[in-house]
Specification:
22% strand; PfkB_dom; transferase; single chain; nine-stranded mixed sheet; Carboh/pur_kinase_PfkB_CS; 13 strands; Adenosine kinase; alpha/beta
C-alpha cells in the first residue's frame, strides 16, 4: 500500500547544560531576563514529525513517501540518513536558499528545557502532486508541519476519498475552529494526546460526540497510561506496552503513529493497530532522540506478543 506522510523534516540540536536553570534565573528580575548558559556541546539529531514517522515505518518494513520541505543549505546529512534507510526523497521539496527547520533545545540537569524553533524551509509547501494517487491503495498521515499543507492535503484526501489520519498536534492554535473542524471532518482517525484533544474541543466548540460524528475514530494517547480508542460502537482503553526505562518520551508519539499505520496497512483492527503503535512507542521512550531506537521485526512481534498476547 502507498503510505503518504506529510509533516516536518527538522534537525533537533540538543545542548546539555551542566547546571540548573533555576540557579541562574532570579524570579524578581524575570521582567529584565538576560541570561547565558554555557553548554557542553551540541548533539545533532534527525527529527521532524514526517521524518520520525517515516523512520519507525522503515523499521517495520514500510517505505513511506515523505511530503515535506527541507533546506538546500544543510539537508545533506539528513539526505544521506534517509538514503541509508532506503526511503525515497523525490517527494521532499528542497528550498535552495533556506535552512532545514531546526529545534535548538537547551536541557538542564533537572530535565527542564528551553527551546527555540526556526521553521525555515517548513514555511514552504511541499507541493506534492496528487494526480497519480489512487484512493484504493493509499493511506496518509497529516502531521504537524507546513500549515498550508495540513489544510490543503486534508481537503484533497477528503475530495479524493483517500483514508487519512489527522494529527494536528502542536499546530492546533494556528488554525481557527472553523478550519480545524473542516480538516478533521472525513478523517479516518483523529489522533492526539489528552491535552491536545481538550484544545481541539475548546478551539472548535465541539464535544467528543460531535468530533466522532466528523471523524470515524478518535484515538487519544495517554503516555504511560496507554490510549483510548473511541469509535461509534465502543470505547476501549488499552494499556501501554511495558518499557525497561523511561529515558526520553520525545518522539514516542510519532513512533506510535508509525505502528498504528503499519497495523492499518496490514488490515488489522484499529485496536490491534493501536497496540502496535504502543509497542513501537515503547522502543522510542527507551532512547534519547526521536530516531535513535531500532528493532528487528522479529523483536517487535515478540515484544507485541509479550504485552498483548
Amino acid at each position: 500500500m502507498n503510505i503518504l506522510v506529510s509533516g516536518s523534516i527538522a534537525y533537533d540540536r540538543i545542548m546539555p547544560f551542566p547546571g540548573r536553570f533555576a540557579d541562574h534565573i532570579m524570579p524578581d528580575k524575570i521582567h529584565i531576563l538576560n541570561v547565558c548558559f554555557l553548554v557542553n556541546g551540541v548533539n545533532e539529531k534527525f527529527g521532524g514529525t514526517a521524518g520520525n514517522i517515516a523512520y519507525s515505518l522503515s523499521l517495520l518494513g514500510e517505505k513511506p513517501q515523505i511530503l515535506a520541505a527541507a533546506g538546500g543549505k544543510d539537508f545533506g546529512s539528513y539526505e544521506q540518513w534517509l538514503r541509508k534507510l532506503g526511503l525515497a526523497q523525490e517527494t521532499i521539496r528542497i528550498i535552495p536558499d533556506e535552512l532545514t527547520a531546526s529545534a535548538y533545545i537547551t536541557t538542564d540537569q533537572s530535565d527542564n528545557q528551553i527551546t527555540g524553533f526556526n521553521p525555515a524551509a517548513m514555511n514552504h509547501s511541499s507541493n506534492f502532486d496528487f494526480s497519480n494517487i489512487s484512493p484504493d491503495d493509499t493511506l496518509s498521515v497529516v502531521a504537524p508541519g507546513n500549515l498550508d499543507d495540513m489544510y490543503n492535503y486534508s481537503r484533497m484526501y477528503r475530495e479524493k476519498g483517500v483514508r487519512y489520519i489527522f494529527d494536528p498536534g502542536q499546530n492546533i492554535p494556528a488554525f481557527s475552529g472553523e478550519k480545524m473542524l473542516e480538516m478533521l471532518t472525513g478523517a479516518d482517525i483523529l489522533i492526539s494526546n489528552d491535552y491536545e484533544l481538550e484544545m481541539i474541543m475548546k478551539n472548535t466548540g465541539a464535544d467528543r460526540d460531535e468530533l466522532l460524528r466528523r471523524a470515524g475514530t478518535i484515538i487519544t494517547t495517554l503516555g504511560e497510561n496507554g490510549c483510548i480508542v473511541l469509535r461509534p460502537e465502543a470505547e476501549n482503553r488499552l494499556p501501554a506496552a511495558k518499557v525497561s526505562a523511561v529515558v526520553d518520551p520525545t518522539g514516542a508519539g510519532d513512533a506510535f503513529r508509525a505502528g498504528l499505520v503499519k497495523g492499518l496497512v496490514n488490515g488489522r483492527s484499529v485496536n490491534d493497530a493501536a497496540k502496535m503503535g504502543m509497542t513501537s512507542a515503547a522502543y522510542a521512550v527507551e532512547h534519547h532522540g526521536t530516531q535513535e531506537h531500532s528493532f528487528s521485526q522479529d523483536a517487535f512481534w515478540s515484544r507485541y506478543n509479550e504485552n498483548y498476547g
